[in-house]
Amino acid sequence: MDPVSVGVLAALAGGAGGELGRQAWATLSELVRRPFGRQAGAPVSGEAELVALSEAPGEPARAEALSGALAARAAVDPEFAAALDSWRGRIPALAEGSVTNTVSGGTQYGPVIQGRDFSGITFNSPTSPPARES
Predict the structure, then answer these.
(1) Which helix (H) or strand (E) holds 55?
(2) What are phi and psi of 103, to 5 degrees?
(3) Would 62 be classed as within a structural domain?
(4) Taking the model in full, what pTM does it have?
(5) Residue-by-residue pLDDT tens, the chain, 134 positions
(6) Is residue 1 included in any domain, yes or no?
(7) Contacts by 42-49, CB closer than 8 A, 24 or more apart
(8) What domain count does the chain have?
(9) Domain-embedded: residue 108
């Protein structure tokens, strides 16, 4: 099982995704707190890591700790692994790297870039429509 994306965990803990993100975080919290087939010597539930990330969502180390705890628990608890996979399947729009691009409103005069997380971009082209010939 792949670990839950650190970026997704941090984004959800930080409130990304609006209502959908809030619901996804609440559902994950319920899942982590639910007592599954815990065995003697089983890894931690992930609850402490969940709380720590919710208190400081901007700290990547906390998201990494939660991701690791979820992966460790899923490795020894098949019921938890199935529930975690189901949870991950319900949040595709919040998945790291997810992008929705829309260009509308008629003809665009100038560059249009579609993608995600751009920085340091400079355009050196005119932004006004070309002159009409008579």
Answers:
(1) helix 47-55
(2) -120, 125
(3) yes
(4) 0.65
(5) 567 888 889 888 888 777 888 899 999 999 999 886 655 555 678 999 999 999 999 899 999 999 999 999 998 888 999 999 999 988 865 544 555 567 777 776 666 776 655 666 676 766 666 677 76
(6) no
(7) 42/73, 42/76, 42/77, 43/69, 43/72, 43/73, 43/75, 43/76, 44/69, 44/72, 44/73, 45/69, 45/73, 46/70, 46/73
(8) 1
(9) no
